[in-house]
Amino acid sequence: SQKIEQNSEALNIQEGKTATLTCNYTNYSPAYLQWYRQDPGRGPVFLLLIRENEKEKRKERLKVTFDTTLKQSLFHITASQPADSATYLCALAPRAGGGNKLTFGTGTQLKVEL
Amino acid sequence: EPEVTQTPSHQVTQMGQEVILRCVPISNHLYFYWYRQILGQKVEFLVSFYNNEISEKSEIFDDQFSVERPDGSNFTLKIRSTKLEDSAMYFCASSLGTSGTGELFFGEGSRLTVL
């Protein structure tokens, strides 16, 4: 069955450092991979989308990589700030004709300390 | 900025009762979804809706669940006879295109507590 794994332990880093979060998947060939941010008690908020034929995508302080051979995506936040503290979810989307649902990972909680 | 709105924000109900959760998706979006998140667990897909019909549903979305877009703006999730295990946060989402091609816009959720 499909499985998406994210670091289950919370990640604590110091302000200004780069946070790197990992998303690994098995038994899946996604066409797209998305990253969302979720704050406690709130709905997920879209951050970035990367396609299977893209290796890297950037948006401001965020960078996502996608390695379909390793079946892994890395999500980087550079120059992290306390306001970046949240849970970050990766989500996989199927190919065209393969349905329209996003399959989410369990998320990694990031805490940026002063 | 347009947003997805959900009501109620919190509903407490007795087991066996019917519940309707309401959502107003972003007006020009074409695809609508319900996801749920049990406390401490991952966000799980329930159903997607396009062109006035269900396009996909998960195993969770059994006969006790139904969705409707009654008036062209609202999108509702009905649970006919709630069970304790239905207690969760229910998120409505909408998108302009299919979920793989672009972002999903999520509402703030409706917390359902079944006693």
Please characterize this protein's 3D structure:
The complex is a heterodimer of chains A (114) and B (115). With 114 residues, chain A is mostly beta strands. Chain A has one domain (3-113): Immunoglobulin-like. Chain A has strands spanning 3-6, 11-14, 19-26, 32-38, 45-51, 56-59, 62-67, 72-77, 86-93, 103-104, 108-113. In chain A, the strands form 2 sheets. In chain A, strands 2, 4, 5, 9, 10 and 11 form a 6-stranded mixed sheet that branches. Chain A starts with a strand and ends with a strand. The model of chain A has no long low-confidence stretch (mean pLDDT 92). Chain B is mainly β. Chain B has a single domain (5-114), classed as Sandwich (Immunoglobulin-like). Chain B is 0% helix and 50% strand. In chain B, strands 2, 4, 5, 6, 9, 10 and 11 form a 7-stranded mixed sheet that branches. Chain B has a 4-stranded antiparallel sheet with strand order 1-3-8-7, with no helix packed on it. In chain B, strand 4 (31-37) and strand 5 form a beta hairpin. The termini of chain B are far apart.
Our Rg estimate of chain A from Cα atoms comes to 14 Å
Taking all Cα atoms into account, the compactness measure Rg of chain B is 13 Å
Shape of chain B: globular
Structural class of chain B: mainly beta
Most residues in contact, chain pair and counts: A-B, 27 and 29 residues
What is the percentage of strand-forming residues of chain A? over 45%
Mean pLDDT of chain A: 92
First and last CA, distance of chain B: 37 Å
CATH architecture of chain B: Sandwich
Element pattern of chain A in H and E: EEEEEEEEEEE
CATH class of chain B: Mainly Beta
Biggest sheet of chain A, in brief? 6 strands, mixed
Number of strands of chain A: 11
- Proportion in helices of chain B: under 10%
In terms of quaternary structure, what is this?
A: heterodimer
- The total tally of domains of chain B equals 1
Global morphology of chain A: globular
Q: Can you tell me the CATH topology of chain B?
A: Immunoglobulin-like
